[in-house]
Amino acid sequence: MTSADPIANLAMLIRCPSVTPAEGGALTALAAMLAPLGFTVERMTAREPGMPDIENLYARIGTGGPHLMFAGHTDVVPVGNEAAWTHAPFGAEVAGGEMFGRGAVDMKGGIACFVAAVARQIAKNGPPKGSLSFLITGDEEGPAVNGTIKLLQWAAERGERWDACLVGEPTNPDQLGDMIKIGRRGSVSGTITVHGVQGHAAYPHLADNAVRGVIALTDALMHPPFDAGTENFQPSNLEVTTIDVGNPATNVVPAQAIARFNIRFNDSWTAETVMAEIVRRLDAAARDERLRPGRPPLRYDIAWAERPSHVFLTRNDRLIASLSGAVEAVTGRAPKLSTTGGTSDARFIKDYCPVVEFGLVGQTMHMVDERVAIADLETLTVIYETFLQRWFGDARA
Predict the structure, then answer these.
(1) On the chain, which terminus has fewer CB atoms closer than 10 Å, C or N?
(2) What is d(CA 387, CA 117) in angstroms, rounded to the nearest whole number?
(3) At residue 230, what are phi and psi to the nearest 5 degrees?
(4) What is the pTM (predicted TM-score) of this model?
(5) What mean pLDDT value characterizes the chain?
(6) Which residues are known to be catalytic?
(7) Contact call for residues 300 and 192 (beta carbons, < 8 A)
C-alpha cells in the first residue's frame, strides 16, 4: 500500500468527508502521499469577508524548468439523500469491480491516479528532469472565491512560474480515451427585474402586468440564436433558469417579475460584447408593444453576476500532442479535442500557462452512488505516467 497504488490513494481520499468548504482531512492525506516522494508541501488558507475560509495545498518537486502543474480539487458536493446510497458515500467500498464514494470521479480519482503516476516515475527514473507541482483547492465545487484563483495568485507572488498545466477533471463521456478538453466556453449570468403596476385583473387598463413584460424580455433573449458556432466551439446558448413573480392571487395583476438567466458563449464573443448584445435585445424588446399595446416602453433593471467566466482555447501543440499521444498509446483511441461542458478552474489557470484537462469517465459525478471502475484507475494512471514521460521529454527537446 504505497502512493504508487491509485486504488489505495483514492480510498484514503474518499474516506475524508471534504464537502465544500470543509477540508475533511483530504489535503492532509494528500500531503502524506506527496511528502515521502520528495515534494515540498505547503498549505495556504484563503479568506474573504462573508465567505468561509478555505484550505488549499501547493506542492512542488524540483527547482528548474520545464515546470508542469497538475491542478485539481479535493472538495466534493454534498451526498444528498444518504439513505439512497447502496454503499456508504465516504466508505470507499469496492463492489462489482467499482469503488463507490463521493468524489470517486469528481475528482479525487484523478488526483489519486496522478499521484500514483508520479510515484511510479520517481521509483523508475528518479525526480523529474525539471519541476512538477500540485495545485489543489478545496473550493472548486463552491463559490470558487477562496480556491484556485487565490492559490495561483499566492504562488505567483512567491515566484512560481509554470510552462503547462493538466487538470484532472473527469472529461470522458463514455470510456477512457474519448475526450481531452482544450478550452471552455465563457459564462455570464444575470437577473432581470421587470417593473409593472399592480391592479385588479378585471381592470387591466389600470394596471401594467409585469408578467407580460418578462415574457417579452425572455423571449428576446432566447430567440434568435446568438450564433451558429465556430470552428472550435458549439453555438452559444442562453437559458432562462427561473421566472419568479411571487403572486399567490389569481385576480391580482403583479407589479414585479424577476427572471434569471445564464449564457454559455463561444469565441464569437467576449464577456463584454455578449453582455452588450443582451442589453441591446432587452432594450428592443422593452419597446415592443405586442404584449403591451399602447404602453410606454417597459421598465426593467438588470444585475450581472460577479466575475464572468471568459472563453478560452489552448493552442499549445506540444502539450496537446503529448497528452493525446499518451492517451492513444495506452487506450488505442485518438481522443476528441473538445471545448464542451461547463466551466472548471482551468478558466483561472489559463491566465498563467497553457492548460488542458483529462480525467476519468464522468457519468456518475454528483450522483447518488458516484463510483469509478477499478480498471479505469489503473488505466488512467498509466496514461498519466506516459504523459509525464512524453511531456518532459518533448519540453526539453
Answers:
(1) C
(2) 9
(3) -130, -175
(4) 0.90
(5) 96
(6) 75, 140
(7) yes
